[in-house]
Automatic annotation (TrEMBL):
InterPro entries: LuxS_sf, Metalloenz_LuxS/M16, S-ribosylhomocysteinase. This is S-ribosylhomocysteine lyase. Fe cation binds at residues 60, 64, 128. The keyword Magnesium does not apply. Binds 1 Fe cation per subunit. One of its GO terms (biological process) is quorum sensing. Involved in the synthesis of autoinducer 2 (AI-2) which is secreted by bacteria and is used to communicate both the cell density and the metabolic potential of the environment. The regulation of gene expression in response to changes in cell density is called quorum sensing. Catalyzes the transformation of S-ribosylhomocysteine (RHC) to homocysteine (HC) and 4,5-dihydroxy-2,3-pentadione (DPD). It comes from Hydrogenispora ethanolica.
């Protein structure tokens, strides 16, 4: 075992990738007795690693909006959560999904984010662990940046 252990994302060369992108990170069997029951995990990277990162309020707002919108398009979303480095999100889906399928869902959600007006879902004090830390305007700016890359290019993580 090398120094990255079995953490798949530590083996990714973060200097070589070009954000934004959607990367299929892993497919896992839920239970060895049911090999057809798979889940798949994706990196949805917004900011170029070690160069830029999202402000926490924008990241938090995007998390709430992704959780709301993507679940309207598919029942397969298990989780969407921000990366600790604040450069993007992890998406986990039921089933062995393709990056192009995820890229289309993410783009559709971000188009809704850009057009979104009104209260951020789940952002009342009772519903959220840090309800004051949201910024829709900044989230919309980062959504627009992501959308500036055509869908077909999003799945190529090394480009340019
Ligand atoms: Zn929250």
């Amino acid at each position: 075992m090398n120094s990255t252990g079995n953490v798949e994302s530590f083996a990714l060369d973060h200097d070589r990738v070009t954000a934004p992108y959607v990367r299929k990170a892993k497919v896992l069997a839920v239970d060895p007795r049911f090999p057809e029951c798979l889940i798949s995990k994706f990196d949805v990277r917004f900011a170029q690693p070690n160069q830029k990162y999202l402000p926490n309020d924008a990241l938090h707002t995007l998390e709430h909006l992704f959780a709301t919108f993507v679940r309207q398009y598919t029942d397969a979303l298990i989780d969407v959560s921000p990366m600790g480095c604040r450069t993007g999100f992890y998406f986990i889906f039921a089933g062995d999904r393709e990056a192009s399928w995820v890229a289309a869902l993410v783009r559709r959600a971000l188009e809704e984010v850009v057009a979104f007006r009104g209260g951020i879902p789940g952002a009342a004090r009772k519903e959220c662990g840090n309800y004051l830390e949201h910024d829709l305007e900044s989230a919309q700016l980062w959504a627009a940046r992501f959308l500036s890359v055509p869908e077909a290019e999003l799945v190529q993580i090394y480009r340019g």
